[in-house]
Amino acid sequence: MPPGAAPTPVRPAPTPQPLGAVARRRGPRTELLAPFVLVAPAVLIIVGLRLWPLVLGINFSFTGDGDRNGMPVGLDNYVTLLGDPLFRTALRNVGLLVLLLPVAVAIPGLLATFIYLRTPGHRVYRAVYFFPAVLSPVIVGAIFNLLLAYDGPFNEVLAVVGLGPVDWLGDPDVAIFAVAGVHVWATFGMALVVFLAGFANLDPSLLDAARVDGASLPQSIRHVIVPGLTRTIQFVFVTTMIGLLTSMFGLLFVMTGGGPEASTYLPEYYIWVQQGQFNQPALASAASTALFLIMLLVGLAQIGVLRRAGREG
Question: In what ranges is there compositional bias, type Pro residues (predicted)?
C-alpha cells in the first residue's frame, strides 16, 4: 500500500444462514405445495386406473348390447338384472355372506388374541395360520374338492362319529356355505396380520389392570381389547367384506362352477358369465355397478354400526 493511502476496509465474510432461515425466506407457498406434489403421483394413478374406469363402466351400463350396441337404453339393463333369476340368486348369496361376515372377522380376531397373549405354541400357530394366504385360490379349490368330495376324508370323519355323509358341493343348500368357509380359511391370515398390528398399539397396562381386577378372558376381550381395536376391527370388517364379494371367483370356478343349480352364483361370477360367455358387456357393466353400490352401502352401514358400538362401549 503506498504511503498516505487510506487503508482499504476489510469486509467481514458473510455469515452462513441456517437452512431453516432459507426455507422461511422462500415463503409459506412452498410448504403448502409440497404435500400436494408428493401425493400427486398416487392421485393420478388412482384416478387413471380406478376412478376413470369406474366412471366409464357406469356410463357403459346405460348402453345396449347386441343390435343396440352403444345405443343409450336408460335403465333397461338394471331392469333386466332385477328380472334375472341368476342375479337374484347372486344377491341372495350376498345377503348370506353379509350374515357370515361377523364370524369371518371373529375367527382371526380370536386367534390374534391368543397369539398376543402368548399361548403355548403361539410362534408355530402364527406361521401355520398365515400359510393358506399365500396359496393360489385354484390350488385351494382343488385341494378342497378332494377333501369335500362325497366319499372324501371329511365325510369319512363324519361317518365315524355317526353324523352321516354330507354332499358339501352337490347340495344347493350347503354348497355356498362350503365355498364361503373355504374362502375364510384361505384368506383370514391377512386379517390375522392386521389384528396383530392393531395389538401392537394396544396399551398392555390396560390388560394388566383388568387381570388385577379379576376380569376373565371374555370380560377382558369385551371391555379392553374390542374398544382398543375399534379402528382395526372396522378396517378388517370392510376388507373382509370386499374379499367375500370380489375375491371368490377362483374358488367358485374350481369348486362349483356356479352350481349346483346355480346356487353358488355371486355378482362377480355373474359378471364373468355375462361378459365372457354371453358377450353382454353392457349388462355386465350394470352388474358391476350394482356390486359397487352394494359394497359401498354395506361398508358404510358396517362402519356406522361399529362406531356406534364403540361409543356405547
Answer: 1-17
Query: Residue 55: how many CA atoms within 13 Å on its side-chain side?
Result: 6
Q: What angle do CA 289, 293, 298 make, to 5 degrees?
A: 150
Helix axes 85-116, 76-83, angle to 10 degrees: 80
> 100 pLDDT exceeds 80?
yes
Q: What is the pLDDT of residue 216?
A: 81
Cβ–Cβ < 8 Å for 277, 209: no
Task: For 78-312, give the CATH class.
Answer: mainly alpha
Residue 17 gets the label, from left (phi > 0), alpha (psi -120 to 50) or beta, of beta
Domain ranges of the chain: 78-312
Task: Give the whole-angstrom CA distance, residue 41 versus residue 201.
Answer: 30
Angle, helices 281-312/52-60, rounded to nearest 10 degrees: 120
pLDDT of residue 285: 92
Backbone torsions φ then ψ of 232, nearest 5 degrees: -65, -40
How do residues 180-222 score in pLDDT, each as one tens digit?
A: 999 999 888 888 889 988 888 888 888 888 888 888 878 888 8
In the prediction, which pLDDT does 143 show?
93
DSSP sequence for the chain: --TTPPPPPPPPPPPPPPHHHHHHHT-HHHHHHHHHHHHHHHHHHHIIIIIHHHHHHHHHTTBB-GGGBTSB-TTHHHHHHHH-HHHHHHHHHHHHHHHHHHHHHHHHHHHHHHHHTT-TTHHHHHHHHHGGGGS-HHHHHHHHHHHTSTTSHHHHHHHHTT-----TTT-TTTHHHHHHHHHHHHHHHHHHHHHHHHHTTS-HHHHHHHHHTT--HHHHIIIIIHHHTHHHHHHHHHHHHHHHHHS-HHHHHHHTTT-STTTT--HHHHHHIIIIIS--HHHHHHHHHHHHHHHHHHHHHHHHHHHHHHHH-
| pTM across the whole model | 0.79
